[in-house]
Amino acid sequence: MSGTITVGLDGTDHAAVAADWAAQEAERRGSALRLVHAWVWRPTDVAYVGDRAAEERWVRDMLDEARSRVAGRHPALDVTTELIVDDPVPTLLAEAAHADTLVLGSRGYGTLTGYLLGSVSMKVLRHAAGPVVMVGKPHSAAPREAQEVVVGVEPGQIGDAVLEFAFSAAAERGATLRAVHAWSVPTALAWSPGSLYRVDEANGLEQINREALTETLKPWRDTYPQVEVVEHCEIGSASEVLLSNSVRAGLVVVGRRSHDAGLRRLGPVTHAVLHHATAPVAVVPHDCPPG
């Protein structure tokens, strides 16, 4: 990967963590780093004594401080900033359409704090044309870049862009890629013991799912022979299986389906991983053009 990684900043601590992560990622990829903030002056929104010029100075100072901090830690990195006068959602969607990756800060993880992604982030995640990475505060002392890249795989339903992003990320890190597929017994078979027996005689449902996972990964293993791949196939809830295999991940990659041009949504697995994974989560549209 190369090109540009863009970070949406809002002056919060979790956005600063996202900028730090994005700077490391940009340095690893050989990409430029772009720091942006969307701002519209609305004097009636908040009851405080101030003016447009003062608020604009604060925003520009925030961007300058972020750039100085990142440049100080990564002196060879090409870092630019821009203050965009517009609402956050359209601004970030436009950035996502032009950047290789858009990076946003997540406010927290866990049963309660995991639901604090924010309405702006959720709207961007649902509609972004390209990959969006949500970054929260790190929970492990081990360096994330040395850990596995984990990708959720649904054979026959995953887009090439998702697997390309995951394999490329693993190659850049020199990390193992863990490809996770969760399967369940089809309802029709569960109510038909005779049918289930015949399937089991033909190596069983587990073997069928393992072979489907292997077949899905084969062209990408051929493209990235340097990446060590662990194939994990397990019966159970897709979100639970993926999360249990992501405890020590450095990055989790999930897909987002687009059902039609007017309806874009986060699936239940992607939604669960965003709320509960302790590693940065990359959400890649299935219909995103690879490369």
From TrEMBL:
Residues 1-135, 148-285 form the UspA domain. Coiled coil: none annotated. It comes from the Bacteria. Pfam families: Usp. Belongs to the universal stress protein A family. This is Universal stress protein. It comes from Streptomyces sindenensis.
